[in-house]
Design brief:
By secondary structure, this protein is mostly helical. It is 58% helix and 0% strand. α3 runs antiparallel to α4 and α10 runs antiparallel to α11.
Length: 410
Protein backbone atom coordinates (compact mmCIF):
# COMPACT_ATOMS: atom_id res chain seq x y z
CA UNK A 1 0.00 0.00 0.00
CA UNK A 2 1.36 3.38 -0.95
CA UNK A 3 1.72 6.29 1.44
CA UNK A 4 -0.72 8.33 -0.69
CA UNK A 5 -3.59 5.92 0.05
CA UNK A 6 -2.89 5.57 3.78
CA UNK A 7 -5.11 8.50 5.08
CA UNK A 8 -8.26 7.33 3.25
CA UNK A 9 -7.75 3.80 4.48
CA UNK A 10 -7.37 5.06 8.05
CA UNK A 11 -10.64 6.99 7.76
CA UNK A 12 -12.51 3.90 6.55
CA UNK A 13 -11.05 1.84 9.39
CA UNK A 14 -12.03 4.54 11.95
CA UNK A 15 -15.61 4.78 10.66
CA UNK A 16 -15.95 1.02 10.73
CA UNK A 17 -14.72 0.88 14.30
CA UNK A 18 -17.19 3.58 15.35
CA UNK A 19 -20.11 1.78 13.70
CA UNK A 20 -19.15 -1.46 15.41
CA UNK A 21 -18.88 0.32 18.74
CA UNK A 22 -22.38 1.71 18.42
CA UNK A 23 -23.81 -1.64 17.44
CA UNK A 24 -22.10 -3.53 20.22
CA UNK A 25 -22.34 -0.84 22.90
CA UNK A 26 -25.79 0.75 23.23
CA UNK A 27 -24.35 3.40 25.57
CA UNK A 28 -22.89 5.16 22.51
CA UNK A 29 -25.64 7.62 21.53
CA UNK A 30 -26.45 7.79 17.84
CA UNK A 31 -28.63 10.92 18.19
CA UNK A 32 -31.97 11.71 16.62
CA UNK A 33 -33.35 14.59 14.62
CA UNK A 34 -36.76 13.80 16.13
CA UNK A 35 -35.77 14.68 19.68
CA UNK A 36 -35.69 11.26 21.29
CA UNK A 37 -32.79 8.86 21.93
CA UNK A 38 -32.08 5.33 20.78
CA UNK A 39 -34.10 2.67 22.63
CA UNK A 40 -30.77 1.12 23.60
CA UNK A 41 -29.16 4.30 25.00
CA UNK A 42 -29.08 5.77 28.45
CA UNK A 43 -29.75 4.42 31.93
CA UNK A 44 -32.27 1.73 32.73
CA UNK A 45 -32.33 -0.10 29.39
CA UNK A 46 -33.89 -3.52 29.99
CA UNK A 47 -31.53 -6.41 29.35
CA UNK A 48 -31.44 -7.69 25.76
CA UNK A 49 -29.20 -10.17 24.03
CA UNK A 50 -26.49 -8.89 21.75
CA UNK A 51 -28.16 -10.37 18.67
CA UNK A 52 -31.42 -8.67 19.65
CA UNK A 53 -29.65 -5.36 20.24
CA UNK A 54 -28.15 -5.46 16.73
CA UNK A 55 -31.59 -5.77 15.11
CA UNK A 56 -33.07 -2.99 17.26
CA UNK A 57 -30.12 -0.69 16.56
CA UNK A 58 -30.39 -1.29 12.80
CA UNK A 59 -34.10 -0.41 12.96
CA UNK A 60 -33.29 2.72 14.95
CA UNK A 61 -30.68 3.80 12.42
CA UNK A 62 -33.14 3.37 9.57
CA UNK A 63 -35.58 5.55 11.47
CA UNK A 64 -32.93 8.23 12.03
CA UNK A 65 -32.05 8.04 8.33
CA UNK A 66 -35.64 8.97 7.50
CA UNK A 67 -37.05 5.59 6.55
CA UNK A 68 -39.77 4.71 9.09
CA UNK A 69 -41.22 2.04 6.79
CA UNK A 70 -38.02 -0.01 6.72
CA UNK A 71 -37.51 0.69 10.40
CA UNK A 72 -40.92 -0.77 11.16
CA UNK A 73 -40.18 -3.86 9.08
CA UNK A 74 -36.98 -4.31 11.06
CA UNK A 75 -38.84 -3.83 14.35
CA UNK A 76 -41.45 -6.39 13.37
CA UNK A 77 -38.71 -8.96 12.84
CA UNK A 78 -37.00 -8.13 16.13
CA UNK A 79 -37.94 -9.98 19.35
CA UNK A 80 -40.79 -8.51 21.38
CA UNK A 81 -38.69 -6.93 24.14
CA UNK A 82 -39.04 -3.52 25.78
CA UNK A 83 -36.56 -1.68 23.49
CA UNK A 84 -38.36 -3.09 20.43
CA UNK A 85 -41.68 -1.82 21.76
CA UNK A 86 -40.14 1.58 22.39
CA UNK A 87 -38.77 1.66 18.84
CA UNK A 88 -42.28 0.97 17.52
CA UNK A 89 -43.64 3.89 19.55
CA UNK A 90 -40.90 6.11 18.12
CA UNK A 91 -41.81 5.04 14.59
CA UNK A 92 -45.43 5.98 15.23
CA UNK A 93 -44.31 9.38 16.51
CA UNK A 94 -42.23 10.00 13.40
CA UNK A 95 -45.21 9.03 11.24
CA UNK A 96 -47.23 11.76 12.97
CA UNK A 97 -49.47 9.62 15.14
CA UNK A 98 -50.54 11.60 18.23
CA UNK A 99 -52.42 8.85 20.06
CA UNK A 100 -49.32 7.29 21.57
CA UNK A 101 -49.16 9.39 24.75
CA UNK A 102 -51.43 7.23 26.89
CA UNK A 103 -49.80 3.99 25.80
CA UNK A 104 -46.31 5.41 26.31
CA UNK A 105 -47.21 6.70 29.75
CA UNK A 106 -48.36 3.21 30.77
CA UNK A 107 -45.17 1.77 29.24
CA UNK A 108 -43.05 4.19 31.32
CA UNK A 109 -44.89 3.28 34.49
CA UNK A 110 -44.06 -0.37 33.81
CA UNK A 111 -40.37 0.53 33.41
CA UNK A 112 -39.83 3.64 35.58
CA UNK A 113 -36.03 3.46 35.37
CA UNK A 114 -35.98 3.43 31.54
CA UNK A 115 -34.73 6.96 30.74
CA UNK A 116 -35.09 6.71 26.95
CA UNK A 117 -38.76 5.81 27.37
CA UNK A 118 -39.42 8.95 29.45
CA UNK A 119 -37.67 11.11 26.88
CA UNK A 120 -39.72 9.54 24.10
CA UNK A 121 -42.92 10.14 26.08
CA UNK A 122 -41.90 13.79 26.47
CA UNK A 123 -41.53 14.19 22.70
CA UNK A 124 -44.84 12.42 22.01
CA UNK A 125 -46.69 14.58 24.54
CA UNK A 126 -45.16 17.77 23.13
CA UNK A 127 -46.24 16.78 19.61
CA UNK A 128 -49.75 16.13 20.92
CA UNK A 129 -49.88 19.54 22.64
CA UNK A 130 -49.89 18.04 26.13
CA UNK A 131 -47.40 20.37 27.77
CA UNK A 132 -47.89 19.16 31.33
CA UNK A 133 -47.16 15.53 30.41
CA UNK A 134 -44.24 16.54 28.18
CA UNK A 135 -42.61 18.56 30.95
CA UNK A 136 -43.25 15.94 33.63
CA UNK A 137 -41.75 13.20 31.47
CA UNK A 138 -38.72 15.37 30.61
CA UNK A 139 -38.13 16.08 34.30
CA UNK A 140 -38.35 12.39 35.18
CA UNK A 141 -36.01 11.53 32.34
CA UNK A 142 -33.54 14.23 33.37
CA UNK A 143 -33.33 12.84 36.89
CA UNK A 144 -32.43 9.45 35.43
CA UNK A 145 -30.22 10.79 32.66
CA UNK A 146 -28.67 14.16 33.60
CA UNK A 147 -25.98 14.07 30.91
CA UNK A 148 -26.43 16.29 27.84
CA UNK A 149 -28.35 16.60 25.69
CA UNK A 150 -31.12 14.68 27.41
CA UNK A 151 -30.62 16.18 30.85
CA UNK A 152 -31.26 19.63 29.37
CA UNK A 153 -34.58 18.88 27.71
CA UNK A 154 -36.64 19.71 30.80
CA UNK A 155 -34.79 23.01 31.25
CA UNK A 156 -35.42 23.87 27.61
CA UNK A 157 -39.16 23.21 27.94
CA UNK A 158 -39.28 25.23 31.16
CA UNK A 159 -37.60 28.13 29.43
CA UNK A 160 -39.96 28.06 26.44
CA UNK A 161 -43.21 27.30 28.24
CA UNK A 162 -42.70 29.01 31.60
CA UNK A 163 -39.90 31.59 31.58
CA UNK A 164 -40.65 33.00 28.12
CA UNK A 165 -44.37 33.22 28.85
CA UNK A 166 -43.76 35.07 32.10
CA UNK A 167 -41.51 37.49 30.22
CA UNK A 168 -44.15 37.95 27.51
CA UNK A 169 -46.84 38.53 30.13
CA UNK A 170 -44.66 41.23 31.72
CA UNK A 171 -44.29 42.96 28.36
CA UNK A 172 -48.02 42.75 27.66
CA UNK A 173 -48.83 44.22 31.07
CA UNK A 174 -46.48 47.11 30.29
CA UNK A 175 -48.67 47.87 27.26
CA UNK A 176 -51.84 47.56 29.39
CA UNK A 177 -52.96 44.46 27.46
CA UNK A 178 -53.97 42.71 30.67
CA UNK A 179 -56.18 40.13 28.96
CA UNK A 180 -53.39 38.77 26.78
CA UNK A 181 -50.96 39.02 29.69
CA UNK A 182 -53.20 36.86 31.87
CA UNK A 183 -53.59 34.23 29.14
CA UNK A 184 -49.80 33.92 28.82
CA UNK A 185 -49.35 33.82 32.57
CA UNK A 186 -52.05 31.24 33.23
CA UNK A 187 -50.40 28.89 30.72
CA UNK A 188 -47.09 29.26 32.56
CA UNK A 189 -48.59 28.87 36.03
CA UNK A 190 -50.45 25.73 34.99
CA UNK A 191 -47.06 24.08 34.49
CA UNK A 192 -45.43 25.52 37.62
CA UNK A 193 -47.93 26.85 40.19
CA UNK A 194 -45.16 27.41 42.75
CA UNK A 195 -43.36 30.19 40.85
CA UNK A 196 -43.52 33.22 43.16
CA UNK A 197 -42.54 35.65 40.40
CA UNK A 198 -45.47 34.43 38.31
CA UNK A 199 -47.86 34.76 41.26
CA UNK A 200 -46.66 38.31 41.87
CA UNK A 201 -47.12 39.18 38.21
CA UNK A 202 -50.63 37.74 38.27
CA UNK A 203 -51.43 39.95 41.26
CA UNK A 204 -50.10 42.98 39.40
CA UNK A 205 -52.36 42.17 36.46
CA UNK A 206 -55.35 41.96 38.78
CA UNK A 207 -54.29 45.26 40.35
CA UNK A 208 -54.00 46.91 36.95
CA UNK A 209 -57.56 45.76 36.16
CA UNK A 210 -58.85 47.11 39.47
CA UNK A 211 -59.54 43.64 40.88
CA UNK A 212 -58.08 44.45 44.27
CA UNK A 213 -59.52 41.49 46.21
CA UNK A 214 -58.08 39.05 43.67
CA UNK A 215 -54.71 40.79 43.72
CA UNK A 216 -54.60 40.67 47.52
CA UNK A 217 -55.56 37.00 47.63
CA UNK A 218 -52.87 36.12 45.09
CA UNK A 219 -50.06 37.65 47.17
CA UNK A 220 -51.38 36.43 50.54
CA UNK A 221 -48.63 33.80 50.75
CA UNK A 222 -45.85 36.04 49.44
CA UNK A 223 -45.31 38.28 52.46
CA UNK A 224 -41.58 37.43 52.45
CA UNK A 225 -41.16 39.17 49.09
CA UNK A 226 -40.59 42.95 49.31
CA UNK A 227 -42.24 43.33 45.89
CA UNK A 228 -45.41 41.75 47.28
CA UNK A 229 -45.32 44.06 50.30
CA UNK A 230 -44.99 47.03 47.95
CA UNK A 231 -48.02 45.85 45.99
CA UNK A 232 -49.96 45.39 49.24
CA UNK A 233 -49.24 49.03 50.03
CA UNK A 234 -50.41 50.07 46.57
CA UNK A 235 -53.62 48.11 47.09
CA UNK A 236 -54.13 50.02 50.34
CA UNK A 237 -53.60 53.30 48.50
CA UNK A 238 -56.08 52.35 45.77
CA UNK A 239 -58.67 51.59 48.46
CA UNK A 240 -57.94 54.81 50.30
CA UNK A 241 -56.75 52.81 53.31
CA UNK A 242 -53.78 55.02 54.06
CA UNK A 243 -53.04 53.41 57.42
CA UNK A 244 -52.63 50.01 55.77
CA UNK A 245 -50.53 51.53 53.00
CA UNK A 246 -48.21 53.23 55.51
CA UNK A 247 -47.78 49.99 57.46
CA UNK A 248 -46.85 48.09 54.30
CA UNK A 249 -44.38 50.69 53.07
CA UNK A 250 -42.84 51.07 56.54
CA UNK A 251 -42.09 47.34 56.66
CA UNK A 252 -40.04 47.45 53.46
CA UNK A 253 -36.22 47.45 53.73
CA UNK A 254 -34.87 50.98 54.04
CA UNK A 255 -32.95 50.68 50.78
CA UNK A 256 -35.83 49.19 48.77
CA UNK A 257 -36.32 51.26 45.59
CA UNK A 258 -39.27 53.65 45.88
CA UNK A 259 -39.88 53.01 49.58
CA UNK A 260 -39.33 56.59 50.69
CA UNK A 261 -41.51 58.13 47.99
CA UNK A 262 -44.32 55.64 48.55
CA UNK A 263 -44.28 56.11 52.32
CA UNK A 264 -44.25 59.91 52.00
CA UNK A 265 -47.14 59.75 49.55
CA UNK A 266 -49.22 57.53 51.86
CA UNK A 267 -48.44 59.73 54.87
CA UNK A 268 -49.44 62.83 52.93
CA UNK A 269 -52.71 61.24 51.88
CA UNK A 270 -53.34 60.15 55.46
CA UNK A 271 -52.74 63.70 56.71
CA UNK A 272 -55.29 64.92 54.19
CA UNK A 273 -57.99 62.94 55.98
CA UNK A 274 -57.29 65.09 59.05
CA UNK A 275 -57.65 68.40 57.19
CA UNK A 276 -60.47 70.87 57.91
CA UNK A 277 -63.77 70.34 56.15
CA UNK A 278 -63.23 73.19 53.66
CA UNK A 279 -59.90 71.69 52.55
CA UNK A 280 -61.38 68.22 52.04
CA UNK A 281 -64.29 69.79 50.17
CA UNK A 282 -61.85 71.55 47.83
CA UNK A 283 -60.04 68.29 47.13
CA UNK A 284 -63.33 66.62 46.29
CA UNK A 285 -64.48 69.45 44.01
CA UNK A 286 -65.43 68.38 40.51
CA UNK A 287 -64.92 71.86 39.07
CA UNK A 288 -62.21 73.77 40.91
CA UNK A 289 -62.48 77.45 41.64
CA UNK A 290 -59.39 79.61 42.07
CA UNK A 291 -59.93 79.58 45.82
CA UNK A 292 -60.23 75.78 45.81
CA UNK A 293 -56.99 75.50 43.83
CA UNK A 294 -55.09 77.60 46.39
CA UNK A 295 -56.47 75.49 49.23
CA UNK A 296 -55.55 72.20 47.52
CA UNK A 297 -52.00 73.28 46.75
CA UNK A 298 -51.16 74.43 50.26
CA UNK A 299 -53.01 71.58 51.96
CA UNK A 300 -51.11 68.98 49.96
CA UNK A 301 -47.80 70.87 50.21
CA UNK A 302 -47.91 72.42 53.71
CA UNK A 303 -44.25 73.42 53.54
CA UNK A 304 -45.28 76.23 51.20
CA UNK A 305 -46.70 78.15 54.16
CA UNK A 306 -43.30 78.46 55.82
CA UNK A 307 -41.41 79.63 52.73
CA UNK A 308 -40.37 83.29 52.37
CA UNK A 309 -42.04 85.25 49.61
CA UNK A 310 -43.13 88.69 48.47
CA UNK A 311 -45.33 91.26 50.16
CA UNK A 312 -48.88 90.26 50.92
CA UNK A 313 -51.31 92.26 48.82
CA UNK A 314 -54.69 93.44 50.00
CA UNK A 315 -57.48 91.32 48.48
CA UNK A 316 -60.89 92.49 49.57
CA UNK A 317 -62.79 89.50 48.13
CA UNK A 318 -61.12 86.86 50.32
CA UNK A 319 -61.95 88.37 53.70
CA UNK A 320 -64.72 85.88 54.39
CA UNK A 321 -63.23 82.98 52.38
CA UNK A 322 -62.43 79.80 54.37
CA UNK A 323 -59.17 79.44 52.48
CA UNK A 324 -57.96 82.96 53.10
CA UNK A 325 -54.66 81.78 54.58
CA UNK A 326 -53.91 79.47 51.66
CA UNK A 327 -54.80 82.16 49.11
CA UNK A 328 -52.42 84.62 50.74
CA UNK A 329 -49.66 81.98 50.65
CA UNK A 330 -49.95 81.23 46.91
CA UNK A 331 -50.12 84.92 46.00
CA UNK A 332 -47.10 86.00 48.06
CA UNK A 333 -45.07 83.08 46.59
CA UNK A 334 -46.09 83.99 43.04
CA UNK A 335 -47.80 80.64 42.51
CA UNK A 336 -51.05 82.39 41.58
CA UNK A 337 -51.64 86.01 40.65
CA UNK A 338 -54.01 88.63 42.06
CA UNK A 339 -55.44 91.84 40.69
CA UNK A 340 -53.28 94.19 42.73
CA UNK A 341 -54.85 97.31 41.25
CA UNK A 342 -58.38 96.19 42.04
CA UNK A 343 -57.28 94.34 45.22
CA UNK A 344 -59.12 91.22 44.05
CA UNK A 345 -58.31 87.49 43.77
CA UNK A 346 -61.59 86.23 42.29
CA UNK A 347 -61.70 83.12 44.52
CA UNK A 348 -65.03 81.92 43.12
CA UNK A 349 -64.02 82.08 39.47
CA UNK A 350 -63.33 78.80 37.68
CA UNK A 351 -59.67 77.75 37.64
CA UNK A 352 -58.81 77.33 33.96
CA UNK A 353 -56.36 74.62 32.90
CA UNK A 354 -53.59 77.10 32.14
CA UNK A 355 -53.77 78.51 35.65
CA UNK A 356 -53.89 75.01 37.16
CA UNK A 357 -50.87 73.71 35.29
CA UNK A 358 -48.83 76.82 36.00
CA UNK A 359 -49.71 76.71 39.70
CA UNK A 360 -48.81 73.01 40.01
CA UNK A 361 -45.48 73.52 38.26
CA UNK A 362 -44.52 76.55 40.37
CA UNK A 363 -45.49 74.81 43.61
CA UNK A 364 -43.40 71.76 42.80
CA UNK A 365 -40.48 73.89 41.64
CA UNK A 366 -40.41 75.88 44.89
CA UNK A 367 -40.09 72.64 46.84
CA UNK A 368 -37.41 71.17 44.59
CA UNK A 369 -39.70 68.64 42.94
CA UNK A 370 -39.37 67.80 39.27
CA UNK A 371 -41.73 69.37 36.77
CA UNK A 372 -44.79 67.24 35.93
CA UNK A 373 -44.76 65.31 32.65
CA UNK A 374 -48.02 66.42 31.09
CA UNK A 375 -49.66 63.95 28.73
CA UNK A 376 -50.46 66.77 26.31
CA UNK A 377 -46.77 67.64 25.80
CA UNK A 378 -45.55 66.76 22.31
CA UNK A 379 -42.47 64.85 23.49
CA UNK A 380 -44.31 62.64 26.02
CA UNK A 381 -44.98 59.08 24.90
CA UNK A 382 -46.50 56.10 26.71
CA UNK A 383 -47.58 55.93 30.32
CA UNK A 384 -46.28 57.79 33.36
CA UNK A 385 -47.57 61.21 32.34
CA UNK A 386 -50.08 63.44 34.17
CA UNK A 387 -53.44 64.40 32.76
CA UNK A 388 -55.86 67.02 34.11
CA UNK A 389 -58.92 66.88 31.86
CA UNK A 390 -61.24 69.89 31.82
CA UNK A 391 -62.82 70.99 34.00
CA UNK A 392 -59.99 70.63 36.54
CA UNK A 393 -60.99 68.64 39.62
CA UNK A 394 -59.51 68.65 43.09
CA UNK A 395 -58.53 64.98 42.81
CA UNK A 396 -56.67 65.54 39.53
CA UNK A 397 -54.68 68.39 41.05
CA UNK A 398 -53.80 66.30 44.10
CA UNK A 399 -52.50 63.55 41.82
CA UNK A 400 -50.48 66.03 39.79
CA UNK A 401 -48.92 67.55 42.91
CA UNK A 402 -48.10 64.13 44.34
CA UNK A 403 -46.81 62.71 41.05
CA UNK A 404 -44.73 59.69 42.24
CA UNK A 405 -42.22 60.13 39.38
CA UNK A 406 -40.86 63.22 41.08
CA UNK A 407 -38.51 61.23 43.26
CA UNK A 408 -38.88 63.70 46.12
CA UNK A 409 -41.06 64.16 49.14
CA UNK A 410 -43.71 66.88 49.27
Amino acid sequence: MTTAHRPSVLIVIALGALFAAVLLNPSVEAGSGHGFPSPLAGPGVPDVKRSQAKKIERGWRELVAGDPIESLKRAERAPDVAPTRLLKYQIRIVKGETDTVGELAAFCRELPAYAAAWMTLSVAAENAGNEASALDAARRGARLWPEPPWGGRAADLERRWIDDRITNAEKLLATSDTGAAMIELEAARALDPQRSDAALLEARIYFSDGQLDEAEATISDLSALPEAVLLQGQIGERRGDWQSAMESYSSLPDDFPGRGEALDRAQTRWRMTLLPEYARRAMAAVNLTRGDLAVVLVSVLPRLETMPGGAVPVMSDIVDHAGQREIITVVRLGIMSADRRGHLFYPNAEADLGTVRQAVQKSRSLLGLSAPRWCTDSDVLGSGCISIPPPASGGAVVNAVLDPTSGASP
